[in-house]
Amino acid sequence: MTTDLPERFPIDADKLDRLAEIAVKVGLRLEPGQDLFLTAPIAALPLARKIAEAAYKAGAGLVTPIFSDEAMTLARFRYGSDASFDRAPGWLYEGVGKAFAANAARLAIVGEDPMLLAEADPAKTSRANRANAIAYKPALEKIAGFDINWTIVAFPTLSWARRVFPGEPDDVAVGKLADAIFSASRVDGDDAVSAWRAHNLALAQKTQWLNARRFHALHYSGPGTDLTIGLADGHAWHGGAAAAKNGVTFNPNIPTEEVFTTPHALRAEGRVASTKPLSHQGTLIEGIEVRFEAGRIVEARATRGADVLRTTLDTDEGARRLGEVALVPHSSPISSSGLMFYNTLFDENAASHVAIGQCYSTCFVGGDRLGPDEIAARGGNASLIHIDWMIGSGSIDIDGLDAGGARTPVMRGGEWAV
Amino acid sequence: MTTDLPERFPIDADKLDRLAEIAVKVGLRLEPGQDLFLTAPIAALPLARKIAEAAYKAGAGLVTPIFSDEAMTLARFRYGSDASFDRAPGWLYEGVGKAFAANAARLAIVGEDPMLLAEADPAKTSRANRANAIAYKPALEKIAGFDINWTIVAFPTLSWARRVFPGEPDDVAVGKLADAIFSASRVDGDDAVSAWRAHNLALAQKTQWLNARRFHALHYSGPGTDLTIGLADGHAWHGGAAAAKNGVTFNPNIPTEEVFTTPHALRAEGRVASTKPLSHQGTLIEGIEVRFEAGRIVEARATRGADVLRTTLDTDEGARRLGEVALVPHSSPISSSGLMFYNTLFDENAASHVAIGQCYSTCFVGGDRLGPDEIAARGGNASLIHIDWMIGSGSIDIDGLDAGGARTPVMRGGEWAV
Ligand SMILES: [Zn+2]
Ligand SMILES: [Zn+2]
Ligand SMILES: [Zn+2]
Ligand SMILES: [Zn+2]
Domains in chain A, ordered, with CATH? Predict the structure, then answer.
């Protein structure tokens, strides 16, 4: 075997061990006897192996890995027949849904080249994504609804490192990406489990404060930004650890810095400018400026990638409305790194953000008992897309507004005011 | 990525391309639009990639790979809780069964370390094998019943090469195993597809001759061997290409040298000595000598591994009776190589052999319409095991016997007499 990257690249073996431990003990909080379904790019094999070992040591039932391979994905887009782009492995996803129904936990390692399909025919990638999304939907709903404990962690693959650190020699790029992942994932220190306990507590204090205030809206002001975002009726703020319906308290994302909730789809007003580029399906969209009226984006500009932005906004009616509002302090470790990861797991934790498209049903009080109509009635948005988009920086102030218009400082200069 | 073994080890890239082509065009005869389910050890990634490319070029629907990893398997046996050894991924196998029902083709790349679990607790491997076999049975029945086109090919992984060529440097071992696989798989020459057409024709001539003779029994004589094996009522000889129920004519094994049929479970009489060691679950069994009475092994000895042999024979009643009889000329390429591969895909093609245990229902005239009782009534054996065991050599003569006892030479000195 020649896939043991740590031998070849400067990836700290102790920190990789700790990341595997955090993935199993904090991300999943895997229960003794619980099966684990694990997905990873083959290039992330060193972490997948350590996670399997940590899972078995924690008393896992059976660990079942499914690996993806970038070269095989590319072969499909290079040589596949036209009909192949409407195919999806429904039989596999149906099985995955059954595994979740039988209480298997779910772990995803990310590390794919974010530009892998940048040169593929956009019509083919869009058809393939659509076919896959439809086939995966029943299983994804169990994830999105927190039926079981699940988590996402990252491994510094070479193909990803080359995008984040272009121009660097391979070993330098992988080493730098590894350091950035370990630091953001809070496994630099010896006692990472305690570090995560403290971090979850800090995030819980913010969500408790916000949930007690029950703001009617948030107001953002800063360079190019004067925006009021209404919050959904009965919205609930979440962040850090979450409770799954199977009774396990888990951390869905490693790393995570955000607290987030569901905005009201009909109540956004004003202008907002993006503070970071948005990497979407291999395209970089920069300098986004949009204007909202009654919750809908009625004007949209970008200095780069404007056509991709417009196509995205035209996906469906919900694509022009907000589905998530998230607060991240400007001093967060990922923001401080100054890096663009081209991966939402990291980039959404670098700044306060909003997402256009689908909302989270879990971000309502009693959300697990609400049907789609009840969620819509409370202002929850629905769409085929969910795209996070950074609007925070060190020069953004955010106020909480009550129904009467009274203001409470939430963030000042990008930092928590509470 | 660092898994591209061809860059590191002396594996002929042209021959690897040809093996992928033969796997898709001869092994599977993949139909345009047909999905492909592919399994492989991660160490076989270079061949898996070439097969995916060849499949898409041949018009495949979707290629879905599932990779196994030796280190993750070992982690289970080292660290898994006691309860984990009774678990199996039933949700996955159920999905695989659905893929076959929807006409997906199936390709397996073998290349695992044959001694991977040699040091694991035999009680755990046996429980894990049993749980897996039970969960996989519905999908396996579609394979064994030739519902769809499927094939098995081999890749020279390092862990396997080290077992076949112990003491050689890694690159030499892999290079030698690669050469042996390519040669046995008949991809040495430029036109491998034609070579396989000729080979399938030669095998078909033997099965046609044997099927026309409808022998009542075969008689084997040679050093330590004086054995009569009755053939099942309505038996059919097979070899080389086979017809699947989905209408595709495919080659289930790459390589293959055997023609084979179902013996009568109640009609074996006499003594037989093994001509090669038998590699079974990490143990080598050598110098086997057994005596049959009325189809049943009533005496069994071995100069090495006798206890494993006895335990195996005690699996169930059918484990002491024959389920396959196969003829392979002593001059076959795999026999000529003189190598022990520790993998049935190769070793069973090095010599005429028998298997104790389960018979093939496809080896009856009209076998796809016969139920278990009808197969048993015709002499077909049933067991949880099927273990091939070499009894051919250059000094074995085989005669066909008709019901009245008249003899027809079938093999002389290990070579076809017809
Ligand atoms: Zn977010
Ligand atoms: Zn989001
Ligand atoms: Zn055989
Ligand atoms: Zn056999």
Answer: 5-184 (3.40.1830.10), 200-243+250-416 (no CATH)
